[in-house]
Design a protein that fits this description.
The protein is of the alpha/beta class. It is built from 12 helices and 13 strands. It has 2 domains: 88 residues, no CATH class; 227 residues, 3-Layer(aba) Sandwich (Rossmann fold), CATH 3.40.50. The strands form 3 sheets. It has a 7-stranded mixed β-sheet, sandwiched between helices. It has a 4-stranded antiparallel β-sheet with strand order 2-3-4-11, with no helix packed on it. The longest helix is centred in the last third of the chain and has 22 residues.
Length: 340
């Protein structure tokens, strides 16, 4: 059944979705609690410090999305266990997400374009020529290719074997694994494009970023921003949510998480695309930015809920309002006065 706002799925996507649903309903995937990354609470019963926002994702996968009442950050809770996610990314993710298990030249080209845009942005803050660029979760390597161009050194890592093979066919230096395999102070620029939202324990990942990036280096993070739902997802929360996204960031929430781990923001949009510098100062000396606001998240989500009304309903409400205004005007108009 198609739910309002959900995507239309291809045959491959439908198959992936049904296989995944089966693994969830027959108990093959076990769920664990996923506390708010900022407040680290979340083991309390749902409703005491969290508000349930949605119970299904854009593919129709049962996924509970909650908002932390303390800081307004959205997240999936509960989530699956680590080994279940390994199985998920190995067997279902690419099929579900893109309707294909292999990368294509077209996809690579599209990603390279995005990488070139990122290069432009990064080069305003750091000299890219000759720099060591490392991308974690590089997939087929298009973004990495776009950033390094022909004058920087690039290394990429990922777990998806088919995508890595594609990257190798484009002469990119990649390996199967995570940031843990990288040496200390080895990256001038560390890139995480559409990766951080998939990570269950971002604080551990960010401490690894801190270890790997050089003192004057930068971390580039791109995540789907909550406050960009009106721009990129037709104003529909139901198109934005997907079960593979375990934490949902606004620019402010990402900044708070990064600042708590010793980084300071150099650039940021609500897209979210953000650049962070490794702070050499002590944590308590870093000037923390504006705190994320629960009110702001709530207000925004309410707005998105209104914009979910079909156009026909909005038109009906609009004409009803015009009629009501005309009636009221006639009612209050003194007798004998005609505005024709
Ligand atoms: Zn919180």
């Amino acid at each position: 059944m198609e739910l309002p706002g959900q995507q239309k799925l291809s045959t491959i996507q439908l198959r992936a979705r049904n296989d995944l649903r089966l693994k969830i309903t027959n108990g093959q995937y076990k769920t664990v609690a996923n506390p708010c990354v900022i407040c680290e609470k979340g083991i309390e019963p749902i409703g005491s410090i969290d508000e349930v926002i949605a119970e299904i994702d854009r593919y129709g996968i049962p996924t509970q999305t909650v908002m932390c009442k303390k800081c307004g950050m959205l997240r999936t809770d509960p989530i699956f266990g680590d080994s279940d996610y390994s199985d998920f990314y190995k067997h279902h993710y690419r099929e579900l997400y893109s309707g294909a298990s292999d990368a294509t030249d077209e996809f690579f080209k599209e990603q390279t374009k995005r990488g070139k845009q990122l290069r432009k942005l990064i080069s305003k803050h750091i000299e890219i020529s000759g720099a060591d660029i490392i991308e974690v979760g590089c997939g087929a390597g298009g973004i990495l290719q776009g950033i390094i161009g022909d004058d920087a050194n690039g290394i990429g890592c990922d777990f998806g074997f088919n995508y890595l093979k594609f990257a190798q066919s484009k002469s990119l230096q990649v390996f199967q694994g995570s940031i843990e395999a990288l040496s200390n102070n080895s990256a001038d620029v560390l890139v995480y494009s559409h990766v951080l939202e998939h990570i269950a324990k971002p604080k551990i990942e960010i401490s690894e970023m801190f270890r790997v990036v050089k003192d004057n280096g930068l971390v580039v993070i791109v995540v789907p921003g909550v406050y960009s739902i009106h721009r990129h997802y037709g104003g529909r929360l139901s198109r934005y949510l997907q079960s593979a996204h375990l934490h949902h960031y606004t620019r402010e929430h990402l900044r708070a998480v990064m600042e708590n781990s010793g980084f300071s923001e150099r650039y940021g949009t609500q897209g979210v695309t953000a650049l962070f510098a490794k702070e050499t100062k002590a944590l308590n000396e870093i000037n923390l930015g504006t705190k994320p606001s629960t009110k702001k998240t709530k207000r925004y989500l309410k707005l998105m809920l209104i914009s979910r009304l079909p156009l026909s309903v909005l038109l009906f409400l609009y004409t009803f309002l015009l009629d009501a205004l005309a009636t009221a005007r006639r009612f209050f108009m003194p007798d004998g006065v005609n505005d024709d």
